[in-house]
Structures are given as structure tokens and as C-alpha cells.
Amino acid sequence: MHSHSTTHEAALIGLGAMGVALARAAATKGRRIIVWNRTSAKAAPLEAAGVTVAASVAAAVAASPVVIVCVTDYPATRSLLESVELAGKTLVQLSTGTPQEARELAAWATARGARYLDGAILAVPSQIGGPHANIMTAGAPEAFAAAQALLADMGAVRFAGEPPGAAAALDFGVLASLFGALLGFYHGARLMESEGLPVDSFGELMAATAPAIGEMIRIDADAIHHGRYEAPEASLEICWRSMELLGRHAREAAIDVSFPDFAAAMFQRGMAAGLGQEAPAAMIKVLRAGSAAKGAGR
Ligand SMILES: NC(=O)c1ccc[n+]([C@@H]2O[C@H](COP(=O)([O-])OP(=O)(O)OC[C@H]3O[C@@H](n4cnc5c(N)ncnc54)[C@H](OP(=O)(O)O)[C@@H]3O)[C@@H](O)[C@H]2O)c1
């Protein structure tokens, strides 16, 4: 079923693991979408489910007022849209990229007469369409208005404001928090193994404590936002001592020391800066002092 009509609500470009999940969520909710993928075989299951498959990117874009792109990265997005007529379209970028890439694509799309919405998906494909799929967006408010209902069929959509880099910045903040926590979890899992304890029970414990950890993060964010680090419930020194102890345990148990040594060294920098009695969030001062790139200290 190929179509060059302008009768679709949205075009979805890119049918990798995430693109397929987005297309299925939209189609399941009854959206009239048209899809395209470089490797056409990936569109076959969607076509069998009644979704329109375009013969080219240009045909998909021409058929829809809203164009959603979910491919590997921004350079791939640009190469796909380079010679496509975008004037009057709402372009929604859901591929992962840096805030700078988002700003550049916003300028590029706007110069071609499109309204631009940058998006970041904070979920894995199996979560798309469900309550745990957060989709962060930023950019032109009119573009958000045009795409909001459609994106809401794919996840819990939030608008972070007009600066086009805002969604990517929040995405990267989440990624840093997530993978920092996961690396700690992997060390914890190895620790359980070395103590002969079941890792699945440890995972259950972490899931149960997740809301409390989330609250600690929120309190730390508040401290950084207001610049208040005095009279903490637990000091930066306590964090440093805990990581030192974790390193001692790793050596006693003869397991990998990478994670505790990294964490202890970071808190050690806070100790060396005289921040031991302040809140752990005072680590932000160490990071500000260590900033090497443009915008250091902001
Ligand atoms: N998977 C996740 O859990 C997840 C979560 C959040 C965000 N994301 C983001 O979503 C985006 C897509 O991820 P994914 O998991 O769907 O990746 P994927 O399964 O590797 O699929 C990549 C997609 O990009 C297309 N592509 C790559 N380079 C291209 C090019 N030069 N020209 C045309 N098409 C090109 C591929 O087309 P072919 O099929 O022809 O190769 C495919 O459709 C990424 O930016 C990723 O960071 C993914």
C-alpha cells in the first residue's frame, strides 16, 4: 500500500527498534501515519498491520503535516531531509543528539520554512505507548501544539521550553544519572555474587528503594539550585568514607575496584577542596572548578 497523498496525520521516518515501537503505538491508537525506512524490509510487518508505507522520504513528508524522525543520529537525519521540501511542515526530531546538534537542526529546519520540535525519548521501545515512556520536547510552541496529541499516544509528553537544546540537555542529564547509578549497581551485583547472595533479591531491594533515592536526588537538586550546602543530614565526608570502605571491601573480597576507587577519588577531590562538612551536593563546586569547556562554571 504505497501512497503519495496528503491524507496522513504524520510521517514517521526510521523504523529501527524505537521507530517501529513509535509507529505501532500511533497505529494502535488509530492514527493515520505513513512510514519510511532505508531498509524497506523493516516496514513489512507494519504494512501487514495496515500502516501505509511510503516509497521515499519525500513521499512520506509530502503526505503529512507532521514529520517525525527517529534514526540513529542527527547527521543521518540531515542527509535524509537534505533534498526534501519541508516548508510548512512540523519537524519532530526524536533521534538522540547533543543540545548543540538540536540548536543547529532547529536553525536548519527553520531556514527551510519548517517549525521545529526537538525531542528526547526517555524509555526503551517496549515501554513506548505505556505510562513509563517519557518524551521530553523543546522548541517552537506552535510545533509542540501541532505534535502534542500524536506524541501523547507514544508516551507521557512534556514540553521543556523554547530553547531547542533543552530536551537534549535533560536527556543527557538523565543518561548521566542512569548510567552512573547502573555502574554502581553492577558493582553491587558483583559484591552480592562474591558474598554468595542472590542478585535478583538485590534488584528487588533497589527497585523498592528507588523512590527514596529519587527524593535524595530531588533534595540535592534543590541544594544546588539555591546554593545551600550547610548543616547537611549526611556530609560529603561521610560519602567519601563510605566509598573508601567500599574500596576496602572490594580488596578484601578480591573483586574489581574500579567503581569504588572512582567514586572515592571524586569525593576525595571534595575533601581536598575543604567541603567535607558540607552537603554532598557541594560536589558541584568541584565539577565547576574542573570544567574545561566553554561555559565553565555556569
Ligand atoms: N532503542 C532505545 O532504547 C532508545 C531509547 C531512547 C532513544 N533512542 C534513540 O532513538 C534513535 C533510534 O534508535 P533505535 O533503537 O531505533 O536504533 P536502531 O534500531 O539501530 O535503528 C536505527 C535506525 O536509523 C536508520 N538509519 C541510520 N542511519 C541512517 C542513514 N544514514 N540513513 C537512513 N536511515 C538511517 C536505520 O535504518 P536501517 O533500518 O536502514 O538501518 C534504522 O531505521 C536513536 O537516536 C536512539 O538513541 C533509542
TrEMBL record:
Coiled coil: none annotated. Pfam families: NAD_binding_2, RedAm-like_C. One of its GO terms (molecular function) is NADP binding. The keyword Oxidoreductase applies. Residues 11-157 form the 6-phosphogluconate dehydrogenase NADP-binding domain. Residues 164-288 form the NADPH-dependent reductive aminase-like C-terminal domain. Keywords: Oxidoreductase. Gene3D superfamilies: N-(1-d-carboxylethyl)-l-norvaline Dehydrogenase, domain 2, NAD(P)-binding Rossmann-like Domain. This is NAD(P)-binding domain-containing protein. The lineage of its organism: Bacteria, Pseudomonadati, Myxococcota, Polyangia, Nannocystales.
